[in-house]
Amino acid sequence: MSGDLIRKFLASTPMSGVSSGYVEAVYEEYLKNPDAVDESWRNYFRGLGEAEQAEVAHRPIRSSFVKMAKERARRARRGEAMNPEAAEKQAAVLRLINYYRVRGHQAANLDPLGLTKGPHVPDLEPAFHGLGEQDMDTVFNTGSLAAEDRMKLRDILDLVRTVYTGSIGAEYMYITETSEKRWIQRRLEGQVYQPWLTEQEQRTVLMQLSAAEGIERYLHTKYVGQKRFSLEGGDSLIPALDELLRRSTTHDVEEVIIGMAHRGRLNVLVNTLGKSPADLFAEFEGKNIEDDPRASGDVKYHMGFSTDVDVDGRRCHLVLAFNPSHLEIVNPVVQGSVRARQVRRGDEAGKEVMPVLIHGDAAFAGQGVVMETLQLSQANGFSTGGTIHLIVNNQIGFTTPNPIETSGRRDSRTSLYCTDIAKMLEAPVFHVNADDPEAVVFITRLAADYRAEFKKDVIIDLVCYRRHGHNEADEPAVTQPQMYQKIRKWPTTRALFAERLAERDVVSADDAAQMLDDYREGLDRGENIARKTLGMVGNEHTVDWSVYQGGDHAEACKSAITLKKLRDLSERLLQLPEGFTVHDRVNRIMKDRSRMAAGAAPLDWGFAETMAYASLIDDGHNVRLTGQDCGRGTFFHRHARLHNQQETLSYTPLAHVGPGQFEVLDTLLSEEGVLGFEYGYATADPTTMVVWEAQFGDFANGAQVVMDQFIASGYSKWGRLCGLTMFLPHGYEGQGPEHSSARLERYLQLCAENNMQVCVPSTPAQMFHMIRRQQLRKLRSPLVVMTPKSLLRHPLSVSQLEDLTKGEFQHVIDEIDDLDPKKVKRVVVCSGKVFFDIYKARQEAGIDDVAIVRLEQLYPFPTEAYGAALKRYPNARDIVWCQEEPENQGAWYQIKHRLQIPLSKNHRMMYATRPGAASTATGYNKVHVIQQNILMQAALKEGSVLVGA
């Protein structure tokens, strides 16, 4: 910026404190639209040379204007004037400070091994801004720097270099909210010269590091060759977690739910949660086999743990979530569990229950579920008041070399940092050198305070290394030869810190060694030295899961309700707030529901489902329904949330039935993240009916890991009960491969040991009883439902009032026409929508010797009820299973052995399906119709395939 411009600006602007507001207003207008301000102002603001303008806030510059104005006024009173050269130097100093805030992290000392070479950042050099040695002793205005108003340039440089290029690299200038940035600046810049830790705190950190190193050494020598996924190299995680507990409990946190993969998990179990070393050793020695032979169990580094601990006189409940080897998949599960606990406590702000997620660097950057979980963090119905993210960044991930190759590209990611995805949340990221445990503890304290203040996520990138391979049998030098040459010679974090404390006369070398010996002796006795637990003390918010442990699939359930209750609920649901105008089509649906309640019209699916929820809520049960379009319903049938057509308002009638709570949430377009969240919610709250609905059934493919690793096997592996319900729209209606099949075969293939239920209801009444049964029984077992699409308005798929006021869910529905059982020669067995197609084809053909039996529950398979239905037809020889899906899909291959159990030697088992296919369905409607006609012929007359033929 030229001196003439400065002189012109100063000449035209008194720059007194009184007029600074005007300057600020002009600058605000310039930020919105540069062409809207006078050219002289536009040129001046451009001359400020903001670094990476998209990331740089204007508040610091505005603050600088105010300080400069005051200084100008003081000089004017003294008869002095700021010459153009001095003004230019002053602006350069402010730019330099700003560049350190924006780019200082790129020059920070983050790699403990010193192998990573960061980019050259010329912007951080005084010369880049026209400042030299001759300016070092000049006193400048510090602008918005959290320091004295005026300082020498060398002192300003010393401060910003210490803060932004030391052991901590802070990224936060992309945050929109100025108050958050100013808060961070005060904490980083304002505390730079203060002692971070007292001597006692330093000794505590050394003890934590001794514990972290001690357990790994002990396991390494006692259980040679066994996998444990050592934390060594990232030892500072343990003092970080210790500080996180200490600081968070001062903010009234009472529960901490932790999710992490296997790296360092055993260390955290013992040294953070206080698990008994004796119990851990028993797992290594195979002495922990379950009494129940059906329980598969899991490897020790996937196991969870929960306990109460004393943290500086405050009781805190700690949970480490069970987690499979699918890295980041535990993230949404933890968030769902936290949300359920917060709702149970009435903790709307997320103050009392806090999620902590511990990640690996490569997984954080590479796993899509990380983005989905981050995206949920501030979404309605999913926020948890902010998550503390700790990344154990060993700089190589699995075995992928991270250094930039000659091509200039990286193997493990595209972005500079593994944390860059978190910027979409405007969450602050603090990179920290893990070999500086004081910096680690300082930044952890800051992160806990930030979460408490702003209720947002915050990321700590713990830059460390991995002393061994991916597991202890791996040879890492094969892919990282230079790195491991240095690691083998590198002292441990504990050794480095002990040496530092000895130099300060805080702890002698002998005392430091004794800490390690004391810890090892405790392990020999099977005692935990690092953390004492209180056991499961519990409180008024603790769930008594023993009530649900005895749940049985055969348990009887009175799911019918009285006619009076049904009509009363219907009337209440149809009452809208005064002046609330619904869409004409919705209004017709509401009028139809009024007629249904009066008995003047048959019941449809939307009415029956709504009545199921309303009756549960009226009895005091809670219902949580989530999905991408579940408020309205993808197929325009539910309308649980109504929208005012005159203004942007919505109304949820079920939320006003009480005393139970109802929550319906239209979610972001996520399956894996949202389903994981709902699973976590259901495992933490058995008193709420948790339902997740896929927009189309096959969309659940994107959440298959959640189904495989948690929903289907969580009880067998970890003893985790879960009553989650999944609604998967399913049915062949000529809508193409992606919107026909919910992949029923995949769920049936996972069924064993009564681990879950798979149902295909074919009438509204069945839906009603099935929903109520799921919540009313003590059984907490996942329920997978193939829900209808075209059946929602099918003239035959209806029910009557008495179907809801009597009866219960039927596992098998026998023939509905008045056929002569003795004349029946063939029984067609089917599930779902295809029944109505077969029924219609039978009527059109005038066939009276074929009965149709519906299986409404495919697992656990209703062998007894199915066999009883077949006995009604003594002369039936052909038993035909008919399904819409191709032969290699659908239920056939998964249940054919069960279909044959009650058959006699006089029966012939046959099947009618579409031909085996790679795709789920045809994309051509004409072909669909042809296939459907052939299928009906095969089921009723000819073309069925004889099993074993």
Automatic annotation (TrEMBL):
Q: Where is the Transketolase-like pyrimidine-binding domain?
A: 603-794
Q: Name one GO cellular component term.
A: cytosol
The family database entries (CDD domains) matched by this protein are listed as: TPP_E1_OGDC_like (cd02016)
GO molecular function terms attached to this record? oxoglutarate dehydrogenase (succinyl-transferring) activity; thiamine pyrophosphate binding
Enzyme Commission number(s): 1.2.4.2
Class of this enzyme = oxidoreductase
InterPro entries assigned to the protein according to its UniProt record, in alphabetical order: 2-oxogl_dehyd_N (IPR032106), 2oxoglutarate_DH_E1 (IPR011603), DH_E1 (IPR001017), KGD_C_sf (IPR042179), ODO-1/KGD_C (IPR031717), THDP-binding (IPR029061), Transketolase-like_Pyr-bd (IPR005475)
Q: Does Oxidoreductase count among this protein's keywords? A: yes
Q: Which SMART domains match?
A: Transket_pyr (SM00861)
For activity, the cofactor(s) needed are: thiamine diphosphate
Q: Which domain of life is it from?
A: Bacteria
BP terms from Gene Ontology: tricarboxylic acid cycle
Swiss-Prot/TrEMBL keywords:
Oxidoreductase, Thiamine pyrophosphate
Q: Has keyword DNA-binding?
A: no
Q: What does this protein do?
A: E1 component of the 2-oxoglutarate dehydrogenase (OGDH) complex which catalyzes the decarboxylation of 2-oxoglutarate, the first step in the conversion of 2-oxoglutarate to succinyl-CoA and CO(2).
The UniProt similarity line reads: Belongs to the alpha-ketoglutarate dehydrogenase family.
Q: What is this protein called?
A: 2-oxoglutarate dehydrogenase E1 component
Which species is listed as the source? Oceanococcus atlanticus
